[in-house]
Amino acid sequence: MREWVDHVIWWHVYPLGFGGGFRRLTGWLDYAVELGANGLQLGPVFASESHGYDTTDHFRLDPRLGDDADFDALIAGCRERGLQVMLDGVFNHVGRSFQAPEHWFRHTASGERAVFEGHGALVELNHDEPEVLDHVVRVMEHWLDRGATAWRLDVAYGVPPAFWKAAVGRVRQNRPEAWFTGEIIQGDYVTFLRSSGLDSITQYELWKATWSSLNDGNFYELAWALKRNNEVLEAGQPLTFVGNHDVTRIASRLTDERHLGHALAVLFTVGGVPSVYYGDEQGFRGVKEDREGGDDAVRPAFPESRDGLAPYGWPIFDLHKRLIGLRRRHAWLVRARTTAEHLTNTAAALVSTDGADRLITLLNVGDEPYDFPIDTAGLRVVESHDDNRSPTSVPPHGWSILAG
User: Fold this and answer.
1) How far apart are CA 343 and CA 169, in angstroms?
2) pLDDT tens across 36-54, in order?
3) Is the per-residue pLDDT at 1 higher than 80?
4) In the chain, is it the N or the C terminus that has fewer CB atoms within a 10 Å radius of its CB?
5) Nearest to residue 267, comparing CAs of 84, 399, 88, 99?
6) What pTM does this model have?
7) Band of the pLDDT at 296, cuts 50, 70, 90?
8) pLDDT of 70-99, one tens digit each?
9) Nearest alpha-carbon partner for 214 in 242, 186, 239
10) What angle, 0 to 180 degrees and rounded to 10, lies between the N-to-C axes of helices 130-145 and 161-174?
11) CATH 3.20.20.80: does it fit domain 3-335?
């Protein structure tokens, strides 16, 4: 019932930072389609006290973003363009002014409301309470009825897996097309997927291994993370990314800007469901800091129109567009298992397969050309960083992708 997920590529937007509310975002839908995205992943859109993750009412839109008519127009615009819509469900905790009976909240031994990871403004819900489960199901169903097709479940790791299994099980009875991904930072992804009943988890292990292997010249880390990703694919569909609203921008994270293409080549040629964080496709920079307001740099405003984007970003946009196009031509990659056929610290040949389908991604972060001792019979270069057409030799700090 969820065949659309095999083809979706998300453009991930943090609406409260994007600026201009739903109306401005609607004006950028054609841009998302031009990029190659066919899904709009939204950060929090519900009434909240500040940053959106301190929800005060799950059934009311944040007035800073617009009203019901503005939201409906955004949904209509997405439907006209074939864009799926994912909403951010913050159901582990709420803002302090969230109105609910006291038994809906978790409490400490001293009787105070428990807070999320030391954040006093975020109080945790009691997931053992049946009324909380009923509430979450109602919220999910309400917004699926309003046009969403997927949910990202914030802090899914902080909620008992049995709660998710009960919630999504009930929602799927009448909405079998809905797709659910859970925010999991670390831990046993496979066990969580199987015990929670979710379709997907956020693939932070692969995110970390992608940039750190490039920075450190250690492709063995990436190979290990890909092995782990293969195991995750046995249980569900990892949501893959090189940037999101909670991490330093990939353009700022990489110590060598020549390696951006390498990171994107990995993202778009390995198994999972890819997500592109708004602005990354333009080379936006921003460093997340561990302080109040430390996320602001990675959640910036987008301009009112394309004219407001810097010229330097368009070649990066075109690179994303090319690689997303490659992904679309090889939709089987959503299920692909990827292994390192050849590996050194600074060179890797990553082979992605699904049945008879095969694609090879060659990465070189060394200062010299690298000749890969691999069999490329029947394959040709379909993308590369500099129009290199050699199927086995990659220039210094270069990459290429081979397909049949």
Assistant:
1) 43
2) 999 999 999 999 999 999 9
3) no
4) N
5) 399
6) 0.97
7) very high
8) 999 999 999 999 999 999 999 999 999 999
9) 242
10) 40
11) yes
Mean per-residue pLDDT, 258-284: 98
State residue 363 phi and psi, 5-degree precision.
-125, 135
Rounded to an integer, the average pLDDT of 131-153 is 98
Question: What pLDDT digit, counting tens, does each position of 215-253 carry?
Answer: 999 999 999 999 999 999 999 999 999 999 999 999 999
pLDDT, average across residues 341-359: 97
Taking the CA atoms of residue 85, residue 86, residue 87 and residue 92 in that order, the dihedral angle to the nearest 10 degrees is 170
Mean pLDDT of the chain: 97
Whether the CB-CB separation of 152 and 164 falls below 8 Å is answered with no
Provide the CA 284 distance to its chain's centre, in angstroms: 17
Beta bridge partners of residue 150, listed in sequence order: 86, 179
Gap between the Cα atoms of 353 and 332, Å rounded: 9
pLDDT for 2 equals 83
Supply the pLDDT for residue 212. Answer: 98
User: Are 25 and 15 contacting, i.e. CB atoms less than 8 angstroms apart?
Assistant: yes
Amino acid at 92: N
Mean pLDDT computed over 10-33 = 98
Q: Which of 330, 336, 153, 332 is nearest to 229 (CA)?
A: 336
